[in-house]
């Protein structure tokens, strides 16, 4: 079977992404998530100031690239991509930031826009008029990822600026629910999760996306899991520290896979019954293609490529990352073919690192 004829079924409805491996390979080198750390620092300064400066007032104004209408994105956007994959009917990217390119015209599109507004880590999405239906939108979280294909798997929303807008997910599990990485703590979300059975484990894929982990651990008296190589001062008291290279198990149906590279202690979670791999920042799909976000690597790019190669042995056909878009492969064979092509390209690119 020719590589160019093997397509990826991407799980973000309404988004346009590479449809073949050839396009995927050609774009993967360029694929990067522009987290705009320097701009993020500016946002923190603006938001923490007791008296809003002229710079702060400008940053909170509507970007001129937005279309006219109620919804808009201001200049504090950190280009985390959250709104663009949550509500692609409304948001797009212009000038390294998000903008509203089409005002929502249906109730479904409006709900998605409000969900993106609530999930924006820097509150950069705004409306001219306070939305009267914002409480209804709040009640939709956590959002089912795919009720038919992935029952019991939810997107928590409320992305945190502390983790540069990373997504958090909840697995409803008979052995105790699992929260994957930390969303921004809000009591409204906590109450909704409580009605769903609370949280038994808070699994932290790596040290970047821990956000409000301590507040969630206190709220639910849950055990936090993090690899010892990624433990820092703010996570020194996590209840379960993984040691060595694994893999480790949480019961019979969940495997924790060590995937060093982005950080030394990055670990992916494989949920076997639904064949989902939660990858954190290890592997993701951006608007440009499959990516390991080399420019944000904190440990070793060659080791990260080796860790992608390692994933080929595991049985999954979904990738759900912390940053970027979800991927649904047609089957495991397609997953393996695509990952093998991606790894070959990366080995070629970084061959000097292996000499």
From TrEMBL:
Location of the Metallo-beta-lactamase domain: 165-323
Protein origin, superkingdom: Eukaryota
PANTHER family according to UniProt: METALLO-BETA-LACTAMASE FAMILY PROTEIN, METALLO-BETA-LACTAMASE-RELATED
Annotated protein name in UniProt: Metallo-beta-lactamase domain-containing protein
Species annotation: Gossypium barbadense
Lineage: Eukaryota, Viridiplantae, Streptophyta, Embryophyta, Tracheophyta
């Amino acid at each position: 079977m020719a590589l160019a004829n093997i397509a990826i079924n991407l799980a973000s409805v309404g988004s346009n992404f590479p449809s073949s491996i050839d396009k995927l390979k050609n774009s993967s080198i360029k694929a990067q998530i522009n987290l705009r750390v320097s701009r993020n620092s500016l946002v923190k300064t603006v938001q923490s100031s007791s008296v809003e400066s002229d710079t702060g007032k400008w940053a909170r104004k509507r970007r001129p690239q937005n279309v006219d209408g109620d919804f808009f994105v201001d200049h504090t956007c950190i280009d985390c991509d959250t709104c663009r994959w949550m509500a692609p009917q409304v948001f797009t990217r212009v000038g390294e930031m998000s903008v509203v390119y089409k005002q929502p015209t249906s109730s479904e599109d409006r709900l998605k826009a409000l969900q993106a507004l609530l999930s924006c880590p820097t509150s950069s999405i705004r409306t001219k008029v306070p939305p009267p239906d914002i409480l209804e939108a709040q009640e939709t979280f956590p959002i089912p990822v795919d009720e038919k294909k992935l029952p019991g798997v939810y997107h928590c929303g409320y992305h945190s600026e502390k983790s540069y807008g990373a997504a958090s997910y909840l697995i409803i599990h008979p052995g105790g629910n699992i929260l994957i990485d930390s969303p921004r703590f809000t009591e409204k979300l906590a109450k909704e999760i409580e009605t769903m059975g609370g949280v038994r484990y808070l699994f932290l894929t790596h040290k970047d996306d821990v956000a409000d982990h301590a507040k969630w651990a206190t709220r639910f008296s849950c055990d936090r899991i993090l690899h010892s190589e990624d433990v820092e001062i703010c996570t020194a008291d996590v209840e379960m520290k993984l040691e060595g290279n694994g893999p480790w198990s949480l019961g019979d149906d969940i495997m924790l896979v060590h995937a060093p590279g982005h950080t030394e202690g990055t670990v992916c979670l494989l949920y076997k019954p639904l064949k989902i791999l939660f990858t954190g920042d290890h592997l993701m799909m951006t608007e440009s293609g499959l990516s390991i976000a080399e420019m944000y690597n904190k440990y070793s790019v060659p080791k990260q490529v080796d860790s992608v190669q390692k994933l080929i042995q595991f049985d999954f056909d979904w990738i759900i990352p912390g940053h970027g878009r979800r991927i649904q492969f047609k089957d495991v064979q397609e997953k393996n073919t695509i990952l093998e092509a991606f790894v070959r390209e990366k080995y070629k690119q970084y061959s000097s690192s292996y000499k």
